[in-house]
Amino acid sequence: MGTGNQTWVREFVLLGLSSDWDTQVSLFVLFLMTYMVTVLGNFLIILLIRLDSRLHTPMYFFLINLSLVDVSYATSIIPQMLAHLLAAHKAIPFVSCAAQLFFSLGLGGIEFVLLAVMAYDRYVAVCDPLRYSVIMHGGLCTRLAITSWVSGSMNSLMQTVITFQLPMCTNKYIDHISCELLAVIRLACVDISSNEIAIMVSSIVLLMTPFCLVLLSYIQIISTILKIQSTEGRKKAFHTCASHLTVVVLCYGMAIFTYIQPRSSPSVLQEKLISLFYSVLTPMLNPMIYSVRNKEVKGAWQKLLGQLTGITSKLAT
After folding, report:
1. N or C: less crowded end of the chain, CB within 10 Å?
2. H or E element in which residue 91 lies
3. φ and ψ at 174, to 5 degrees?
4. pLDDT one-digit tens code per residue, 201-237
5. Is Cell membrane given among the entry's keywords (predicted)?
């Protein structure tokens, strides 16, 4: 493509994590196993919630959405990364790079808003339990979920459009594992101050605002828990929020460290490791966290396994 005296690239080359073949094969096996566990774990959580009527509550409705986001996010990054680990030429077409940025950035934004919505759900459950079913009715839950998906997608569309309008000239080497926002805008051969401002604004709107809402929700939740007289009551209330709080720390912590200060961002290697943690490990860990730290989910698993064992025994006899 050509425009005036500027040459526009048709494809990008992702430099990835390593150029050593043995290392790439080892990483391929590791990331493939991680991706399989991620897909299996999240779809099992969704299936479990659908099958067990005791889990048909607002909290688990939002957890289904979170699992869908996690699987989709991992799918937007890992398959491409796996293909490049075994490829000699690690190119990605211009359109595919833009699509990857749109989906990964959008799904990340959706998750931030969704975690804030889940924090509000936990706030109502702990601080106003008698009116929980009245406040968190089906219509509100659906609207909150739709708001999460729409807001994340709209922000991603805006960021993707303004990023790929930048002239990249002949610089096509992206020193990252994927078409990540900060890595892509560094390729521009023009001033990127406006893009950095846009990143800061979107970070405030879709990262810091939900984070502040989560923080306020948990201040109220902790205040309410401390007022509970019985130790057992406090423990039960805390366990209600423990899984969500763990996921919040993982997701918001990494994103804030990466995006909130683009000018003083970490090194390229640190960015790659942070991106790996967020796109590979977090989607795999989330269903495990909700399975291990949640009594209702563990009870549902035990019930389902008991039913499967009973069916197997009958078939065997």
Report:
1. C
2. strand 91-93
3. -100, 115
4. 887 788 888 989 999 999 999 898 888 888 777 877 7
5. yes
169 in helix, strand or coil? Answer: coil
Positions of the chain with pLDDT under 50: 1-6, 262
Contact criterion met (CB below 8 Å) for 287 and 36 = no
CB atoms within 10 A of CB 249: 10
Contact 202, 155 (CB under 8 A): yes
CB 199 within 8 A of CB 166: no
> Long-range contacts made by residues 190-194, C-beta under 8 angstroms, separation at least 24?
190/166, 192/166, 194/162
**Pairing label, strands 173-174, 11-14:** parallel
Report the predicted TM-score, pTM, of the whole model to 2 decimal places.
0.86
- Chain segment 254-276, per-residue pLDDT in tens: 767 665 554 555 577 777 887 88
Task: Spell out the alpha helix ranges (H) of the chain.
Answer: 21-51, 58-85, 94-127, 132-135, 138-164, 181-185, 193-203, 209-227, 231-259, 268-276, 282-292, 295-316
Collect all residues with Cβ–Cβ distance below 8 Å to 153 and sequence separation of at least 6: 106, 109, 110
